[in-house]
Amino acid sequence: MTVVVTGASGHVGMNLVRGLIAEKRDVRAMVHLNNKIIGGLSVETVPGNISDVESLCHVFAGAETVYHLAATISLLKNEWSLVEKVNIVGTRNVVEACLRSGVRRLIHFSSIHAIQQEPLDTPVDEARPLIQGRQYPPYDRSKAAGELEVRRGIEKGLDAVILNPTGIIGPYDFQPSHFGAALLSMANGKMIALVNGGFDWVDVREVVQGAMLAENKAPTGSKYLLSGHWASMIDIGAILKEISDASIPGFVCPMRLANIGAPLSTAYNRMLGRRPIYTSVSLRALSSNHNISHEKATRELGYQPRPFKETIIDTLQWFGQNGYLKCSLKSNL
User: Fold this and answer.
1) Is residue 312 domain-resident?
2) Is residue 6 part of a domain?
3) 280 assigned to some structural domain
4) Residue 168's CATH number
5) Which tens digits make up the pLDDT trace of 208-231?
6) How many domains does the chain have?
7) Helix (H, G, I), strand (E, B), or coil: what is residue 299?
8) Alpha helix locations (H) across the chain?
9) Under a CB-based contact definition with an 8 Å cutoff, are residues 145 and 199 in contact?
10) CA 79 to chain centre
11) Which of 153, 154, 238, 259 could form an SS bridge with 95, CB 3.0 to 4.6 Å?
């Protein structure tokens, strides 16, 4: 039976499509604007628009499973209308199209950012509530609202599962992703300072594995945190120094100082037409909870993240093989 992937040209999508192909599944990739990087893979590509329910019904026709990855990620505070259109209304449309088209199962990709992080000294698990209130960044609020759209679909009879991955890194990061860009900036000597903060990072291949396990094993309405390992930007810099000849900044900027400079840095990068990496939103994320539990996913699905250093090595090797990397990796990796 056919498996549909929305957001197939994104970082997770490119890895998921490959994982599904490896299991000899019939994959239909929904494409909107960018289908060049899907070319060459043995998948059916169908044009679709997440803003149009009828378009989605056409894409989902005859599908057994839909993996909903299409989303807009934002590290800014002024992009609510953009993330609302894709992450909330788009998810509502996907749910409606699944119900109309008789899709057997929806696997919805939410985010750890949808979940309340406080109290910071207590591990985050699936029992934590979704965030509420305008004090949270637009992207975070939009992903929480997207989960509620899926819950409404479940109440109408939709068989759906929700996944909340942490910070995703790994190979096949063509665009690249926000953290992929940050890692490259560090490795290519373009980062002038490290920030005194960190995050829980997970290998994209584990996220794909967790999603495919959830398709086959998870009960209707279940939710799983797909986390990996917490590591600071200083830890990542140390790994880069160990495995490459990258010139890592020696200055570590305190979070308080970084927050003062973030608006100026954001404005400067946007003026130059560059995507800002350190914004007030991303700095907030780097100060979030250190302990994100994947115990439920491990217990019920058999999910198990690989060592973080292995992920960094594989990611940089892929970037190097595809012309993104300027530093050299050591030959004994």
Assistant:
1) no
2) yes
3) no
4) 3.40.50.720
5) 999 999 999 999 999 999 999 999
6) 1
7) helix
8) 11-22, 53-60, 80-83, 90-101, 138-155, 178-187, 204-217, 233-243, 255-271, 280-285, 295-301, 308-321
9) no
10) 18
11) 153
